Amino acid sequence: MSLIEDLDQLEAKAKELIECAATSDALEQARVALLGRKGEITSVMHMMGKVAPEERPVLGKRANELRRMAETLIADRGGALKRAAMRDLMATEAVDVTLPGARPKIGHQHLINQIIEEMEDVFCGIGYTVEDGPHVETTYYNFTALNAPMDHPSRSARDTFYVVDNAPGTCAHAEAHAHGESDVLLRTQTSGVQVHIMESQKPPIYMIAPGTVYRPDTPDACHLPQFNQVEGLVIDEGITFGDLKGTLDYFVKCMFGPERKTRYRPHFFPFTEPSCEVDVSCGVCHGEGCSFCKHSGWIEILGCGMVDPNVLVNCGIDPERYSGFAFGIGVERVAALRYDLPDLRTLMTGDMRFLNQF
Amino acid sequence: MRVPYSWLGEMIELPSDPAELVAEFIRTGTEVESVDTVGESFDHVVTAQVVSKEPHPDSDHMWVTKVDVGQFNLGEDGNPEPLQIVCGAQNFNEGDHIVTAMIGAELPGGIKIKKSKLRGVLSCGMNCSARELGLSGDHSGIMILPPDAPVGVPFAQYQGTSETVLDCEITPNRPDCLSMVGMAREVGAIYDRDFHVDYPKIKAEVGRPTADELSVAFDDEGMCDRYVARIVRNVKVCPSPDWMVQRLTALGIRPHNNIVDITNYVMMLTGQPLHAFDLSTFAERDGHRSVVVRAAHEGETFMTLDGTERVLSEGMALITDGERPVALAGVMGGMDSEIEDDTVDVMVESACFNAGRTSHTSRDLSLISDASIRFERQVDETGCVDVANITCALIEELAGGEVAPGYVDLYPAPKAQPELTLRLSRVHAICGADIEADFVERALTRLGCTVSRAGDDTFHVVTPSFRPDLPREIDLIEEILRLWGMDRVEATIPAAKNHIGGLTREQHLTRKIGQILRACGLNETTTFAFAAADDLKKIGMPEEGRGCPVVLMDPLIADQTEMRRSLIPGLLRSVAYNEAHGTANVQLYEIGRLFHGRENASKPKERMSLAGVLSGAMDDITWLQKYRPLRFFDGKGVVEELLAQLRIEKVRFRPAEGEGYAFLQPGRGAEVLSGGTVLGWVGEIHPDAREAMDIDLPVVAFELNFDALLSGARNQEAYHEFSAFPSVEHDLAIVVDEAVTCEDLERRITSAGGKLLAGVRLFDVYRDPVRVGEGKKSMAFALTYRSDDHTLTSEEVEKAHSKLVTKVCKATGGEVRS
Fold first, then answer.
1. How many C-beta neighbours within 10 Å does residue B702 have?
2. B548 in A contact zone (CB under 8 Å)
3. Confidence of residue A6 (pLDDT cuts 50, 70, 90)
């Protein structure tokens, strides 16, 4: 039998060995058997030295072809086996994609603080700063400096939480008080921050002051003894009532939607003159009148006005040179309007079911 | 202020549809709370006729009546059938025309008419007295209508009582609008239109002059600005005529008798509160009587006409007859000097009491009257005499009184109205609108001002005495703007030139802290800033270091008597609330304010605090994962992550021990430090404290000083190059005494590892009395060795590792666990 015939047989054998390998292990065995150090094809290659020189070119060429063929077949077969194994693995790994995912547990921000941050962003966007002030105030900062007369009904203990004064008469701007009242109180409005800021900063002032305020209202669905306001104050040269309107129109559209309208109703507050209340068109009926807006088409959302010259003078600002406007918004009210909250008390319980909603 | 539309319409031309006026009121600053139709409450009230009247079989004063209500009650045959009604009145006979409230009627006092049995006899309605219908104070019997009154028509239709009333909310700066005249003037200013009022005039002056019989004196200053008194003699006290009763009812005032009704009526007409005294109750000396206004004595008592004994304090103003008090000035009259049915001589008081004093008195006594509301908003003292005369004229007309000649008028310091300068340029500058000079002049004139022009830009304005809210130029500008129309002003945005806004670093950090905690799975909440006096004690939290409490003078409820000094009690309350409502898994944080009172200062120190509570598990079990119960290390992990994210340096935890941490479970609490600064604590709430707060499950909590977090937070440091060379990992399990802390071991390892030790990670803590030993633990660390400048050889690593092991074992008394 000639060597050539041996090679033909070896080729047939190699093909069979490779193609019959059902696993990558079997394929590896075949590779070792054929191409390993002692493999049959390797042995043929080693025999070349013993072949007659005239046969060498033909045989050498044939042997090399055989080796390349085996290598190619092994690579192809390897690829096929790998793909098959992957297919099998994937088949076992298929899942019901409608099963719930492994959701990371992320906390939620309290609704009121979400709204406050939203308002902060609206006003920071038009160049305002965000300011803070004490919650335990003196009557001077909560009332007097804001032009509230000494006998103003809002000063009564029915409308204001007074606290025991540990050092009567020692606070700045101590005042005389009716029975049950003192110089020190829980602020009933964020407006006192206006005074602190005007005392400590020079105009131009463009600021808001969000924060908690306190009033002796027994908690019920619509009242809390502690709630939040966002105070706004602008003091600059040439500020007009038109500026107040433009600013609050912008704010209302940011908070409630660009389609909402505003209405300015003259009103009275001691610290602003002229003063007004602002209504926003009802989002449920779009101004047609419905039970949500008590059939008026409008919903009251804030009080505002041009800063009273007395307040400017109290804070050392010349009212002939500077003018300004101020506003105060009830945050819980915005929340109640936007989310139709049935009971404000839920805001204070820490109920996870409530907090997880927002 | 309730404004009857038809009455207002007598003074000034009104739009036929009240809704039009309401819209104008709202546009110009008078809030209209509602538009009521008085008389609607007379539903199911009809005119009727008594068909029969039999004595009640089981009562000696009641009657069983049959009353014909026409078509309102039909029998089975479809024909009108009389109603059987049991009636207690004695003033009627068969055939009388009466007013009957049928089943379903609701009378003004809130009485609902239902089918009932009175002493066993069926009664299908009620025959009404005038008082039951809210028409007058007459309760002497049922109302008898004239014999020609129709039978079986709705009473409202018969009476013609249906009246539209605007319920207006008058802002406290507008005392003038607490009167019909004021409202008419306001309407005149809105529509630029005249108004007219016909005041009654005294027809005759009879008998001894007022000043001859009566003198007025002010014993104390500052009580009363003006006091006008006038006597009317020989009055006949009786119910008021129907027209007045209807008007007062529409105004929401209950009718009494003609004299009292007249004072109320004139008050509602003019805004000047009045009081009528029974003159005979005033002390008489030599045919003279006196009125003395003085300050009350501390603790003095006085019976007001509502029958309540009032304890007065100094600073309240009293009207006396020189001996006894007869009225609490500006607030309420006295029981003893009230007008009774047998009153003959009347003294009419038309005075102006001090606004602030009236307000204080009213507040201190919690006594608000129609008079006090007006006085505390400032009554027009220039009108006292005119109003006294209008009142006396009406008493003359309606009660047959004889008006004494003249009056007494004590008015020590007559008020003059100042002249204001109003600049048109200022109007434009404040309003941001070019309001015409003509409009300015017209509007102010309509409001009662005297306006004269002084040049192109300037007006001289004298405001009317009934507008105490207009002392300055800016007040006039407000009037002009509201009448001109706020809606007409063009909306603009200020330029904010030379101003920079935005959040501060602290504000950004505050937001970031919230974001980190939410990323850790905690929900943000808010709790009340109020606290109960025993909040801290209840959970064993010391008061030390928290200042004294800020105490409310008049708390609303017993568990909110002071301001909180820790966020923890409130958060524990939220945990208990959730547990009680079926939510076991609770993860909450709050950034809130604490109030630390100071012994010798009026105001407390306020500081922000951050606290969190975790209880139950992170989440409910799912098909994928089970969550273990939240315990100490879950709370500590949140704190660690927060501090790491804030890049707070030198963070350490050490056991929280001692009385200061009595609210924590011993051995499960840690103080959190940054270098030498205590930032706060984290730990499991003591079971006793949990029990006190009604919490079943363990709670791990933390409370951190917010200001310390803000000041300790650092910005991102510069970039660190990664090592390009491979690392080698070696595990080390070392058996040490229980007393050796993890912190100890880590510190030893780190210092012994030298430059090549790149990482230390604890991956197992193992205790076993046999394999590890009693009182010992095996701590297994994964150590990572790496160099920044070359690939480590195994010899290098072995050398470093064995050196580390030797050092650590020696320092801690530990042994390597094989």
1. 24
2. yes
3. confident
- Flag if A124 and B563 touch (Cβ within 8 Å): no
| pLDDT of A179 over the 80 cut | no
Chain B residues 372-401 with a CB less than 8 Å from chain A = 376
**pLDDT at position B41, please?**
59
User: Interface pTM (ipTM) of the complex?
Assistant: 0.88
Q: Above 60 in pLDDT, residue A355?
A: yes
Whether A319 shows a pLDDT value over 60: the answer reads yes
Say yes or no for a CB contact (<8 Å) between B499 and A150. no
User: What pLDDT, on the 0 to 100 scale, is given for residue B739?
Assistant: 92
Contact B497 A204 (CB under 8 A): yes
- Which pLDDT score, from 0 to 100, does residue B40 have? 56
Beta-carbon contacts of B10 under 8 Å, excluding residues fewer than 6 positions away, are none
- CB count within 10 Å of CB A68 equals 10
CB neighbour list of residue B84: distance below 8 Å, 6 or more residues apart: B64, B65, B66, B121, B122, B123, B124
Of B363, B496, B556, the CB nearest to A178: B363
A235 neighbors A333 (Cβ within 8 angstroms) = no
> Given a cut of 80, is residue A10 above it in pLDDT?
yes
A97 burial type by CB count under 10 A (0-12 exposed, 13-18 middle, 19+ buried): exposed
Residues of B in contact with A246 (CB under 8 A): 491-494
CA distance B459 to chain A (A): 18
CB contact under 8 A, B493 and A225: no
pLDDT for residue B160: 65
Q: Which SS3 state, helix, strand or coil, does residue A139 take?
A: helix
pLDDT tens digits along B491-533: 999 988 889 999 999 999 999 999 999 999 999 999 999 999 9
pLDDT of amino acid B533 = 94
Local structure of residue B659 (DSSP, 8 states): G
**Cβ of B359 and A151 within 8 Å?**
yes
Return the number of CB contacts < 8 Å for A and B.
Answer: 294
Contact check, Cβ <8 Å, B498/A348: no
Tell me if residue A19 falls in helix, strand or coil: helix
In 3D space, the residue among A350, A345, A113, A353 whose CA is nearest the CA of residue B569 turns out to be: A350
Q: How many CB atoms lie under 10 A from the CB of residue B576? A: 20
A109 to chain B nearest CA, in Å? 5
Phi, psi of A304 (to 5 degrees): -160, 180
Nearest CA in chain A to B470: A273
Separation CA A103–CA B586 (nearest Å): 17
The per-residue pLDDT for B422 is 97
pTM of the predicted model as reported, rounded to 2 decimal places: 0.83
Q: Which residue of B has its CA nearest to A155?
A: B363
What is the nearest CA distance from A293 to chain B, expressed in angstroms? Answer: 13
Residue A274: is the preceding peptide bond cis (ω within 30°)?
yes
Dihedral Cα B273, B278, B279, B283, nearest 10 deg: -110
Pairing of strands B562-563, B586-596: unpaired
Is A243–B494 a contact, with Cβ atoms under 8 angstroms apart?
A: yes
Query: What pLDDT score does B213 carry?
Result: 94
Low-confidence ranges of chain B (pLDDT < 70): 39-41, 109, 135-138, 160-162
Work out the minimum CA distance from B492 to partner chain A, whole angstroms. Answer: 4
The pairing of strands B523-524 and B586-596 is parallel
- CA distances to A336, B752, B762, B765, B798 from B785, rounded to whole Å, are 59, 12, 15, 22, 10
